[in-house]
Amino acid sequence: MTTDELRDAYLDFFASKGCERRASDVLVPRDDPTVLFTPAGMNQFKREFMGLGDPNFKRATTCQKCIRTGDIENVGKTGRHMTFFEMLGNFSFGDYFKREAIHWAWEFLTNTLKIPADRLTITVYLDDDEAYDIWHNEVKIPANRITRMGEDDNFWPAGAPTHGPNGVCGPCSEIFYHYDDGREVEIWNLVFTQFNRVGPNQLEPLPSKNIDTGMGLERAASCLQGVKTNFETDIFVPLVQAVSEVLGKRYDADSLDGIRIRRAADHARALTFTIFENVRPGPEKQGYVVRRLLRRAVLDAYRMGRREPYLFEIIPVVADVMKRPYPELLESVPRIQTVVREEEERFLRNLENGIKLMDDVFRKTEAAGSDTISGDDAFSLHATYGIPVEIVESLGAERDLKIDREGFEAHLAEHGRISRGSTEAADVFATGPLDALKQEHHEGTSFLGYETTEAEGTVIGILAQGKLVENEVAGGTAPVALVLDRSPFYGESGGQVGDIGTIEGDGFRFRVEDTQRDHGFILHIGHVEDGTISVNARATARVDAARREAIRRAHSATHVLHYALHTHLGKHAQQAGSKVEPDRLRFDFSNPEAVGRDRLKRIEETVNDRILLGESIRWRTMPLEDARKLGAMALFGEKYPDVVRVVEMGEFSRELCGGTHLDSVGQIGLFKIVGEESVSAGTRRISALTGKAAYDYIRQEEEALGAVSAALKVPPQQVAQRVEALLEEIKTLKKQAAQRREAPKVSADELLNQAKEVGGAKVVALAVPGVAAGELRQLIDVARRKAESGLAALLITEADGKVILAAGLTPDLVDRGLHAGNWLKQVAPVVGGGGGGKADFAQAGGKKPDQIPQAIETALQAAREALGG
């Protein structure tokens, strides 16, 4: 039996027992802060286990996608540990209990799967005589094949009676499969939640008992297929083979490289499913887990000699082997590959430095005469460079070094406050005020907003400061949430913002400033403007209709934009999120590069062409499977109910969507793209306007263009050419100005030509405008070389209102007793300055530019006196 056949057989079997077949929940559960990823099949049914769900929904069966990383160090090392796996489950919410759960499990294993009874053994909780008797007396399992175990092995949560936490709990019964070589593998756990723990070993019976069972799909498949490990099943063999081929390494199951290859196969599967749900590698929470998995796989390959990205090449293989239960993966392969490859490249760039730093840490530790790597250093390598601590530990051991594990764990725990979520069992069944309201109003709030923006309803709940209250009076500053039994207000979801408006009744008026959804209720958030609102009051709820219409325009435009993106970019341009506000939208989509100006123009034209056609917009509800068969697009990472709403536009767009829409595409009016940018690796964002906002934007652009046109004195259609001509003219002028600045103001030859004969020497005393201070010395040096002997030069220039002087003598004049520094001392005071220097060269400054001509005369006179001329 293949893994796919096993999955179907299980779900079909329990459906035949009256269990409602439910789809897998998403990997990142909504509205559940207690876990980062869905760890078990029961998570999506928490409300049902608490008695807060639909009273008519009593039995369920699922195949749940799960991720657990608590045993990540064992992945690849053992045959059964994985980070991503599928959990087959059947559940009862106050309906069937131990007898049915045990009998059905045995029936499925021995009759449906045809597993020989002598290959199966059972464990039960130490004090659970009821379960033992059912197994022994009714199912006829011999006593020597049933083992009683303590609370650490056969109770949920483990050790709960003694150690807690308080709350719902119960005994377990586990089923083990035995191989011919004596190995045993737990394949199924039946949890009987029948108690409420109120203190140490104080277990009170629950009025409503539940069943939560879980069978590991991959483990069961390995048993049925007669292989020793999960990695030898039909699902994993292609993945292991693909990793081996890409890395160019022969797969040897018992070698260190074999462990690494298995680990890469597992991690590639986990990455495919998490990134499909738009969980990207990052520094916190789910992103931290994804980044850690990817880096471990890349580091394993690096240790095998691979220096280039490779993991992205495994993604198509994962999508192919998992396509039967999860066909949606196939269209997302390019998007997932882009994210994986870019993260691989980023990590590989850092890895070389990281390994060098690790060697530096080893040398520093040894130089200090220690054999222990500090917790600070180990955590730095782990957090900054992504090098797992076990790698540091194993490489350090080669040099007789160990790690300060206590220090490292302390850093890790602190980092865990922001990078990992709580998984405390005590938080699993946390309740709030809306849970209490749900017990009275199981149906929640009926949404009427698809048909109307005004409706009558009854106030069934008032939430103030986190509590349910009976009434609320005007004048309060803190926002209040009203809950009605029926409402036309749309609660924020699917990217569409919540409605605003008013709720009025006899003696009160409430201003709705935002609308949210929670627990099946529509929460109208705002302030009481007048009077007093009480529970059970009748009210009229009115949505701001003009604002809603603007939101409808923008929301319908996102669907048309999605179609246009697929037309011009390809099917890989899947929606990755959106924000829909009155006449403006933000649309995130998968694309490896910037869209480009020309393609953006074509995308905008396609949307507006569709608007001009004015095709009808219609919607209908249908089973999820029927919607998928119709080709309705779904937002990846979103959990959809069994019955979904499909929005269709003409014949070109069909999407699953719960938002409010127009009656025809033509009502969008106008669509204008105003921005395109990167959101993250492989994800782009288009910002656009519709309706009135688009019209106002274009009008503002027209006015701006008109102003420029008037200033340039050309028609609007010639503005671009005129601006280009002006820019070219400016460029030419700048070039000419630069050339003038670069041209020498005076040459050494010109200086020598203006020299005066004094006492057998040549004297130059000149003002040279526009010459920088450094150029003065350069001019004097060149003139001295050309003259070879008998030259005395003193040059003056002005810069920013200051005077700069420089004087230089050829060596023969210095031998005659002349001194450049003394020369300047005589001249500089004339321009209000001073200075001096060596005999052959000196510099000075001043602050009276108007005295430069006088300074030149003084310089010539001083030279005559010194030379006797």
UniProtKB/TrEMBL annotation:
**Domains: entry comment:** Consists of three domains; the N-terminal catalytic domain, the editing domain and the C-terminal C-Ala domain. The editing domain removes incorrectly charged amino acids, while the C-Ala domain, along with tRNA(Ala), serves as a bridge to cooperatively bring together the editing and aminoacylation centers thus stimulating deacylation of misacylated tRNAs.
Where does the record place it? Cytoplasm
List the source organism.
Tautonia sociabilis
Q: What is its EC number?
A: 6.1.1.7
The reaction(s) catalysed by this protein are: tRNA(Ala) + L-alanine + ATP = L-alanyl-tRNA(Ala) + AMP + diphosphate
- Recall the GO molecular function terms of this protein's record: alanine-tRNA ligase activity; aminoacyl-tRNA deacylase activity; ATP binding; tRNA binding; zinc ion binding
Output the SMART domains linked to this UniProt entry.
tRNA_SAD
Question: Where does the record place the Alanyl-transfer RNA synthetases family profile domain?
Answer: 1-700
| Family, per entry | Belongs to the class-II aminoacyl-tRNA synthetase family.
Q: What is its main location?
A: cytoplasm
Q: Does the keyword Cytoplasm apply?
A: yes
GO annotations of cellular component type: cytosol
List the InterPro entries.
aa-tRNA-synth_II/BPL/LPL, Ala-tRNA-lgiase_IIc, Ala-tRNA-ligase_IIc_anticod-bd, Ala-tRNA-synth_IIc_core, Ala-tRNA-synth_IIc_N, Ala-tRNA_ligase, Ala_tRNA_ligase_euk/bac, DHHA1_dom
* UniProt function note: Catalyzes the attachment of alanine to tRNA(Ala) in a two-step reaction: alanine is first activated by ATP to form Ala-AMP and then transferred to the acceptor end of tRNA(Ala). Also edits incorrectly charged Ser-tRNA(Ala) and Gly-tRNA(Ala) via its editing domain.
Provide the protein name. Answer: Alanine--tRNA ligase
Tell me which UniProt keywords the record has, alphabetically. Aminoacyl-tRNA synthetase, ATP-binding, Cytoplasm, Ligase, Metal-binding, Nucleotide-binding, Protein biosynthesis, RNA-binding, tRNA-binding, Zinc
| UniProt-listed GO biological process terms | alanyl-tRNA aminoacylation
Q: How is the cofactor bound?
A: Binds 1 zinc ion per subunit.
State the needed cofactors, names only.
Zn(2+)
